[in-house]
């Protein structure tokens, strides 16, 4: 007989999530065997990079209830920090990744400081503006970024003399980064800080009265989310060995928000599903130009209307519709940020 | 009484536009006591609570908590000093489980920040927090709902959950805003029992309540508010006989009170 969920501790749930993440990642490890060629293999790499972007954003949006429209901006910041440093100044890529992480985190701190003091949609507006500013900088700072032509010739990632210069090698780097994020989030959700974040999105007044500083909580989530994007950007730059401004535009930020919603707003597995969609759908619709935007748009409307928990929330919803026991594991109810 | 005042409110006014919801109100709550706050609807009781907790900003006056001026402090800083509260209109974290709600109430007693949380270096703390949360849930008869979604609770259960969540902080001062409203009689008795028990363990309580039976039986000291200011203050017998109180509640002079 399975243990009654009512008895399951938050630590049990953490253990279960960690175990499930490790199993799923072991399955993902078979991708290099399944992928017939480098192109398909590199889709796997992009999947993990997208997962970092969506996973970070899910903390801010899904759990924290704040909309950030700058995830692509931080993605670009990470890509250009590491790309420019390694290409133009000979900084070793592993150091570049670290600096990309620090740079985007610090930038998020500086933007969040004024924007998160205010309640409501100020973060959405401030981040929207900031992504636009970054996009302009990526295009205009030609001597550094290469401007609209992009930054070409970024050196591959290398660690203690071992170069991750083929998709087969780089896959394991991206695979590890994705797994690390899943483990970090599993831990965070079973902690004082993770509960504080979810409490703030549930009721800011109540959270405040429980001793939680809503501003600090949101600021830290925003910084963590930017850190994820910074790392994703640096990995992208060294894998692709090329970065161009339109990758990091506002429309990418909007699409990432859509992916958080489609995958499952505030669900542990949401970012994995969101990243799968974000990576696979454009590939499947390659022949029809921009058809993925139509698909994502319709998907977003359908999810908002019929599946507020996104794909990750669907099993729970169906179980509920089928009238399963009320002692089922709590899957957070998706709530739209306000 | 020679007891120290845990809470002192002096000359407090809270205004919403032109309306003074609390008007130059002063009162004290002795450490270890249960203070009842009653008054007709719109008397300003909840606004008073919000001002004590830091959610409503008074236009004048002071709030002292254990002889410390907390007037300018944010709600979370006051919570850190040992103040916990429940809400009249429920403020449950509906996206979390019942026990997680109670564990949020424990926030000020826990220490792990983001770094420890992300790395999972909080196992001992989590275990302890969860044990205490379960204990509080059991106290309010919600033990078997621990793993359920908080959103699945009925109104009365959610009110009990709010109390459990406030108790998880093990506060010095507990503000209960109409805990009996909408709660069936058997559960009311449980709440009364919990209030007494928590008070005996040393927690000072301020209770806003409409239910006279409860207030009269639980509180040794009652503040009656009307139109944002103090109408009467004293023990239940005194307050019940006070002509102004009778007038405010019944709307006319009663000869033979």
Please provide a written account of the structure.
The complex is a heterodimer of chains A (338) and B (257). In chain A, a hairpin with a 2-residue loop joins β2 (157-159) and β3 (162-164). In chain A, α3 runs parallel beside α8 (167-189), α9 (192-202) crosses α11 and α12 packs across α13 (270-284). Chain A starts with 9 loop residues before the first helix and ends in a 17-residue tail after the last helix. Chain A has 338 residues and is mostly helical. In chain A, the strands form two sheets. In chain A, strands 1-4 form a two-stranded antiparallel ribbon. In chain A, strands 2-3 form a two-stranded antiparallel sheet. Helix content of chain A is 71%, strand content 3%. Chain A has helices at 10-28, 31-34, 38-63, 71-89, 93-115, 122-140, 142-145, 167-189, 192-202, 204-209, 214-240, 250-264, 270-284, 291-306, 310-321, and strands at 151-152, 157-159, 162-164, 242-243. Chain B is α/β, with parallel strands linked by helices and 257 residues long. In chain B, 37% of the residues lie in helices and 24% in strands. In chain B, the strands form two sheets. A six-stranded mixed beta sheet of chain B has the order 6-7-8-3-9-10, with helices on both faces. A four-stranded antiparallel beta sheet of chain B has the order 2-1-4-5, covered by helices on one side. The radius of gyration of chain B is 19 Å and the shape is globular. The mean pLDDT of chain B is 90. At the A-B interface, α1, α8, α9, α10 and α11 of A face α2, α3, α4 and α5 of B.
Q: Helix content range of the residues of chain B, please?
A: 25-40%
What structural category arises from helix and sheet content of chain B?
Answer: alpha/beta
Beta-strand level of the residues of chain B, as a percent range? 15-25%
Give helix and strand order of chain B, one letter per element, not per position.
EEEHEEHEHHHHEHEHEEHH
Largest sheet of chain A: 2 strands, antiparallel
SS field, number of helical segments of chain A: 15
Distance between the termini of chain B: 28 Å
Radius of gyration of chain B over all CA atoms, rounded: 19 Å
- The tally of strands of chain A reads 4
Give the terminus-to-terminus CA distance of chain A: 42 Å
Task: Strand order, main sheet of chain A: write it out.
Answer: 1-4
Structural class of chain A comes to mainly alpha
Biggest chain pair contact, residues each? A-B, 48 and 52 residues
């Amino acid at each position: 007989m399975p243990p009654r969920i009512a008895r399951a501790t938050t630590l049990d749930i953490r253990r279960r999530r960690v175990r499930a993440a490790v199993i799923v990642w072991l399955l993902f490890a078979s991708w290099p065997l399944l992928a017939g060629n480098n192109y398909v293999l590199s889709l796997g790499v992009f999947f993990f990079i997208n997962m970092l972007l969506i996973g970070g954003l899910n903390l801010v949006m899904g759990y924290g209830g704040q909309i950030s429209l700058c995830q692509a901006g931080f993605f670009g910041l990470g890509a250009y920090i590491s790309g420019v440093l390694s290409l133009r100044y000979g900084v070793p890529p592993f150091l570049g990744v670290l600096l990309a992480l620090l740079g985007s985190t610090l930038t998020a701190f500086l933007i969040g400081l004024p924007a998160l003091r205010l309640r409501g949609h100020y973060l959405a507006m401030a981040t929207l503006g900031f992504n636009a500013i970054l996009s302009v900088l990526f295009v205009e700072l030609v001597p550094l970024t290469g401007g609209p032509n992009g930054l070409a010739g970024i050196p591959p990632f290398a660690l203690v003399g071992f170069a991750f210069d083929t998709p087969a090698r780089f896959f394991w780097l991206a695979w590890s980064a994705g797994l690390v994020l899943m483990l970090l989030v599993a831990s965070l959700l079973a902690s004082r800080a993770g509960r504080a974040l979810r409490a703030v999105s549930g009721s800011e007044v109540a959270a405040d009265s429980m001793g939680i500083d809503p501003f600090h909580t949101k600021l830290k989530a925003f910084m963590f989310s930017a850190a994820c994007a910074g790392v994703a950007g640096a990995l992208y730059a060294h894998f692709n060995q090329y970065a161009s401004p339109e990758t990091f535009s506002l429309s990418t930020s909007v699409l990432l928000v859509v992916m958080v919603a489609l995958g499952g707003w505030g669900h542990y597995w949401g970012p994995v599903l969101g990243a799968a969609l974000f990576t696979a759908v454009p590939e499947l619709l390659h022949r029809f130009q921009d058809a993925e935007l139509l698909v994502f748009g319709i998907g977003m409307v359908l999810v908002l209307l019929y599946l507020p928990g996104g794909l990750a929330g669907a099993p729970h919803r169906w179980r509920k519709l089928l009238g399963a026991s009320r002692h089922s594991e709590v899957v957070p109810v998706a709530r739209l940020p306000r | 009484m020679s007891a120290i005042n845990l809470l002192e409110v002096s000359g407090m006014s809270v205004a919403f536009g032109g309306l003074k919801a609390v008007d130059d109100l002063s009162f004290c709550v002795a450490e270890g006591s249960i203070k009842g706050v009653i008054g007709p609807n719109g008397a300003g009781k909840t606004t008073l609570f919000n001002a004590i907790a830091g959610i409503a900003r008074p236009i004048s006056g002071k709030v002292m908590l254990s002889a410390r001026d907390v007037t300018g402090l944010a709600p979370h800083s006051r919570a850190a000093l040992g103040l916990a509260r429940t809400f009249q209109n429920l403020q449950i974290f509906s996206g979390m489980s019942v026990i997680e709600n109670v564990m949020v109430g424990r926030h000020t007693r826990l220490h792990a920040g983001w770094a420890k949380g992300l790395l999972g270096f909080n196992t001992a703390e989590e275990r302890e927090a969860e044990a205490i949360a379960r204990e509080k849930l059991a106290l309010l008869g919600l033990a078997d709902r621990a793993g359920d979604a908080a959103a699945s609770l009925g109104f009365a259960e959610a009110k009990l959950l709010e109390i459990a969540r406030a108790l998880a902080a093990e506060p010095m001062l507990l503000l209960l805003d109409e805990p009996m409203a909408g709660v069936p009689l058997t559960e009311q008795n449980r709440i009364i029992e919990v209030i007494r028990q928590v008070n005996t363990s040393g927690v000072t309580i301020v209770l806003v309540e409409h239910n006279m039976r409860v207030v009269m039986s639980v509180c040794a000291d009652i503040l009656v508010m009307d139109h944002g200011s103090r109408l009467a203050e004293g023990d239940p017998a005194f307050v019940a006989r006070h002509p102004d109180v009778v007038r405010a509640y019944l709307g006319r002079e009663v000869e033979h009170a």
